[in-house]
Write a structure and sequence with these properties.
Strand content: over 45%
Largest sheet: 7 strands, mixed
Oligomer: single chain
Radius of gyration: 13 Å
Shape: globular
Length: 124
């Protein structure tokens, strides 16, 4: 069982930056690929970024490429999402998710564990 707790959300002006963190329980963190998803008001949840168990591979949604960076610290059982050049359309609840495999996947169906989410609001 893996428990995930997100933090770092908040209110930021357009063009600003935030860094989200997701702390994971469990002793085999490096065996889990980690993802960030988001759900904007009135919309379905969507993939944002993914990182493999050892951090050697990453993947991003086209909408965040060049602005967001996913990283992980396996010694701290933590995954991060650095978000730069934020836009109002980035406003959403951001969810951390863990896959029961070290290889990247980008669909919700491939995730095994979910955090409760952290709200990011970008004002114009």
């Amino acid at each position: 069982q893996v428990q995930l707790v997100e933090s770092g959300g908040g209110l930021v002006q357009a063009g600003g930056s935030l860094r989200l963190s997701c702390a994971a329980s469990g002793r085999t963190f490096r065996s889990n690929a980690m993802n960030w998803f988001r759900q904007a008001p009135g919309k379905e949840r969507e993939f944002v970024a993914a990182i493999s168990g050892w951090g050697s591979n990453t993947d991003y949604a086209d909408s965040v490429k060049g602005r967001f960076t996913i990283s992980r610290d396996n010694a701290k059982n933590t995954v991060y999402l650095q978000m730069n050049s934020l836009k109002p359309e980035d406003t959403a609840v951001y969810y951390c998710a863990a896959r029961g495999h070290y290889l990247i996947a980008t669909t919700e169906e491939d995730m095994n564990y979910w955090g409760k989410g952290t709200l990011v609001t970008v004002s114009s």
